[in-house]
Design a protein that fits this description.
This protein is of the alpha/beta class and about 270 residues long. Helix content is about 40%, strand content about 15%. The chain has a five-stranded mixed beta sheet with strand order 3-2-1-4-5, sandwiched between helices. Helix 4 links the parallel strand 4 and strand 5.
């Protein structure tokens, strides 16, 4: 297949099959990654996981994975470092990856004690491009862009392969779209959250609060004027580990860095 996406560094296409649709609470039962290097080399990784909680029947009805199928599989904690290493230095692609997959993946990494940041990566969600051009779902995208049925929908590796093929077909079809992940990220994610739960949003190149008494204020500003508030975030149990880490880093003078897109460089 001809590759329409122009890569300057590796890109990883991600898909998760899970116990449900709540990123903060549910767990991964199957994870697939298709890593593409700038020279076109592809690396496939697929792993079923024991979620260590029961898989609801309604989730099994979607992806066909049941408790007994993953009883002897490793937990995410056991493979977390290998996954983090595979994704290191990669831009990220997926279908609905911003709203779901990356949010759930953040929580899984946090439970495993691994910091997983997307701040220095381009994120391309093929669903955003598709819905901007042809609002539907992945199966319809396969029919529309590839003129074929997606026979094995909701099997993780088939989904990531199809997502990658759809993305390349989208860029071939819409010649007005940029070719590289950074520019696609800038075009479709102009209000992208800093963190997976949306507690901080980008204001220009800086992180700003979306909650509490400092809603709309820059994190850097509050770190200078009210460090006690950041300490309160760190100590308060209601915040996720990801948010606490952002606050800890801010107390040290370290702040999220937004990846520069062509539009922001202008």
């Amino acid at each position: 297949m001809e590759m329409s996406v122009k890569l300057s560094r590796p890109i990883a296409v991600i898909d998760l099959e899970t116990t449900g649709l709540r990123p903060e609470q549910d767990r991964i039962v199957e994870l697939a990654i298709l890593k593409i290097l700038p020279d076109g080399t592809q690396i496939k990784y697929v792993q079923r996981l024991n979620p260590q909680i029961a898989i609801p029947p309604e989730a099994s009805a979607v992806h066909g994975i049941r408790d007994q199928d993953v009883a002897n599989e490793p937990s995410f904690h056991k493979v977390a470092h290998a996954i983090a290493d595979l994704l290191k230095g990669c831009d990220l692609v997926g279908f609905n990856v911003l709203s779901f997959d990356l949010r759930l993946l953040h929580h899984e990494f946090a439970r495993a004690g691994i910091e997983f940041s997307t701040n220095d990566r381009a994120i391309v969600d093929a669903k955003q491009i598709y819905h901007a051009k042809e609002p539907r779902d992945l199966e319809a995208a396969c029919r529309f862009y590839l003129d074929e049925a997606h026979e094995n929908a909701h099997t993780a590796m088939d989904d990531v392969v199809m997502t990658w093929r759809v993305l390349n077909a989208q860029l071939s079809r819409y010649r007005d779209l940029p070719r590289d992940p950074v520019s696609l990220d800038g075009m479709f994610n102009t209000r992208k959250a800093v963190d997976s739960s949306g507690k901080f949003e980008w204001s220009g190149q800086n992180a700003a609060f979306t909650f509490g008494k400092y809603r709309g204020r820059l994190l850097q500003e509050i770190a200078k004027t009210d460090a006690e508030y950041l300490s309160w975030i760190v100590d308060k149990g209601d915040f996720s580990e990801e948010i606490k880490q952002i606050a800890r880093n801010a107390l040290k003078g370290q702040f999220p860095a937004k990846i520069k897109t062509k539009s922001s460089d202008a």
